[in-house]
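Human: We require from you a protein record containing the residue sequence and its fold in token form, and nothing else.

Assistant:
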Amino acid sequence: MTQAQRDVRRKLAVLRHAEVSANVSLTCRRFGVSRDTYYEWKRAYATRGEEGLVGQRRGPRHPHPNRMPAELEKRVLELRTLGLGPQRISWYLSRYDGKRLSSSGVYYALRRNGLNRLPQYQSKRCVGTWRRYEKEVPGHQVQVDVKFVDVVTRSGKHLRRFQYTAIDDATRIRALRLYPRHTQASAINFLDYVVDKFPFRIRQVRTDRGHEFQALFHWHVEDLGIEHVYIRPRTPRLNGKVERSHKTDKVEFYQLLEYKDDVDLEAKLAEWEDFYNFQRPHGAHRGKTPYEILRERLTSQAKLCQASA
């Protein structure tokens, strides 16, 4: 028996008890209902029979005039499948759809559809006592690290690839490349790629003390006129921006990736690199892209130079 059927049986019992006892007040006290409710049930039963006793959804007959349009809510849910939070979804809608929707409006739409929490965000956040910092000049500090990438080919073979990542502290512009081996030779090749890729002079490179960043890599960096600094052991937060960007890769790229082979993976990573730098709204920049911030920084530096000349 369904809940609706049990509800109808209870209402019938109330109506029959009132007929037998001929005392509406006594019946209402016995069953814990108000007189207004009793007479409402009685009128519904007299006009429509048992069908009139089926519980009706309480609420306005017409949707609220300010309720989010169905098409916009569908678009919000599509963006949520990319692992984006309410604030970033709001930025995406403004930038690419021309829709103005607050982050709280996005959140309520997600909550209505049971998507206000994603598995990646259910773990407790670590609360640190350190102070965040950010360089003002592009290239003043570039953080470099390696992400291990495990993929499965179409034939079912498991492969491990190594994503070398560099991120500029001031603008969050990134360079990404995959390598089949985790060696100093790979790190040196990647650094040369970063120097050619970044549109500004690099003054300092920060890495951990992994074997791929030891003597050969260190002196190659110094030979290029770039300072190489090792962070303290067991303090990944000192390279926190590149570490955090790897989580972005996991949520917004790898878990949505349709992998075919190594060539396909490298091409898709290159597309993701361009999207991250030129199109993706960045939380640290309040919805602006890394290259938009770069243009702003370079423009402000040029004005300062003109003013001091």
